[in-house]
Amino acid sequence: MFVLSGPSGAGKNTLLNAVLERVPEVDYSVSATTRPSRPGEIHGRNYFFLSPERFRQGVEAGEFLEWTEFCGHYYGTPRRFIDERLAEGKSVIMDVDIQGAAQIKRQLPQVVSVFLLPPSMAVLHQRLLARATEGAEAIRRRLNKALLEVKALTDYDYVVVNEDLDLAVERMKAIISAERHRVGRMDCQRIIDQVTRGNV
Amino acid sequence: MFVLSGPSGAGKNTLLNAVLERVPEVDYSVSATTRPSRPGEIHGRNYFFLSPERFRQGVEAGEFLEWTEFCGHYYGTPRRFIDERLAEGKSVIMDVDIQGAAQIKRQLPQVVSVFLLPPSMAVLHQRLLARATEGAEAIRRRLNKALLEVKALTDYDYVVVNEDLDLAVERMKAIISAERHRVGRMDCQRIIDQVTRGNV
User: Fold this and answer.
1) Which positions in chain B touch A150 (Cβ < 8 Å)?
2) Residue B150 burial by CB count (10 A; 0-12/13-18/19+): exposed, middle or buried?
3) How many angstroms separate the CA of residue B120 from the nearest CA in chain A?
4) What is the pLDDT of residues B38-75, one digit of tens each?
5) pLDDT tens for residues A8-17?
6) Number of H helices, E strands in chain A
7) B178–A158: do the CB atoms touch at under 8 Å?
8) Among A6, A25, A51, A133, who pairs with A10 as Cys (CB 3.0-4.6 Å)?
9) What is the spatial distance between Cα A105 and Cα A112, in angstroms, rounded to a whole number?
């Protein structure tokens, strides 16, 4: 199970889409949110778009692995969706903010956390402006948040600087592949049996 | 710093050569040995071929990070060679047996250890026969040793099964790349300064 965090505009969505396309054994953990959908976003694929009432019900029922509030909207990770994917033997990758990542790490220490950084704050600012979905005030708040967030990278397992998308995708793929070959995550007895079976 | 172990015939040398060719930031740690050189092996590249007297002097002088004796020959890892490469900012990969890997892990816990497995003992036997550099008795000893060694894989950080060379090379490359992006191995303060410099 992988967690990807990073400031808005670091390129998380683009990176995630590229990784999901190229690594078939990884599924995206669709988050729930109460924020309005942006053009092109699909319910059940980008987010589960919930009403504030429905979201609060879910929080009370313990349906979320983590949840947070930002800019007046709720964001949360539905527990059932992830459990179903893991039961299928898939890896799941989640896009959560640093508070969410910390909440998840406390509950599931085996989660691998990756922090995606923009090459600089100037680039981040440009990307947020280019997105053109938010006003100057919202962008200013996101930049201020980003400045604080960058310092949290020391709490993560890996850090990837997104100066070039293809390079960042390759690094993310390497992290996923490597972690799937960690001795602690593999059924070592099965491997030993398989290798030594029917011999000597 | 990476350590690669695995039974003789698991394909360590072939894998290492392919990795060294494709990953420029990694250097091979040339071991010292008192065994006779095989056809094509070059002193200072495949091994430092030493006399037993010279090897024993080195052991007494603390020149080896680890050393061991197998089939009547000594094998050791020269400390100076590795220190020089690390000082250049390179990663170093070492081919050592399980006792050597355990010795190195005790001295340098940050070392990343990878265990390379053959797909089966039958395949291992075929590979040792095909190599045709040793007699039946030496091959039998190597196979017996391999059977015991396989169980040591749980002491390693990663396990790679070498059923296909290209796949094994890709996995090894992924492990090296991922480990170079571990937060614990990076200068996080430098990264934070670089990203936040000159803004807001």
Assistant:
1) 192, 195-196
2) buried
3) 4
4) 999 999 988 999 999 999 999 999 999 999 888 899 99
5) 888 898 999 9
6) 8, 9
7) yes
8) A6
9) 8
B192 vs A156: CB contact, 8 Å cut-off? no
Domain coordinates of chain B in residue numbers? 2-29+90-196
Name the residue among B124, B94, B114, B109 with its Cα closest to residue A181.
B114
Name which of A157, A181, A182, A186 to mutate to probe chain B: the one with the most chain B Cβ atoms within 10 A of its Cβ: A181
- Per residue in A115-141, pLDDT (tens digit) is 999 988 888 888 888 887 778 888 888
Q: What is the pLDDT of residue A186?
A: 83
Average pLDDT over residues A167-185: 93
**Nearest C-alpha in A relative to B167:** A177
CATH of domain A2-196: 3.40.50.300
CATH of B2-29+90-196, one of 1.20.120.910, 3.40.120.10, 3.50.50.60, 3.40.50.300: 3.40.50.300
- The answer to whether residues A193 and A186 touch, using CB atoms and an 8 Å cutoff, is no
Q: pTM to 2 decimals?
A: 0.83
Interval B78-103 mean pLDDT:
89
- Whether residue A153 and residue B182 make contact (CB cut-off 8 A), yes or no, is no
Please write down the long-range contacts of B31-39, taking CB distance under 8 Å and 24 or more positions apart. Answer: B31/B75, B31/B76, B31/B77, B31/B78, B31/B94, B31/B95, B31/B96, B32/B58, B32/B64, B32/B74, B32/B75, B32/B76, B32/B77, B32/B78, B33/B73, B33/B74, B33/B75, B33/B76, B34/B73, B34/B74, B35/B71, B35/B73, B35/B75, B38/B133
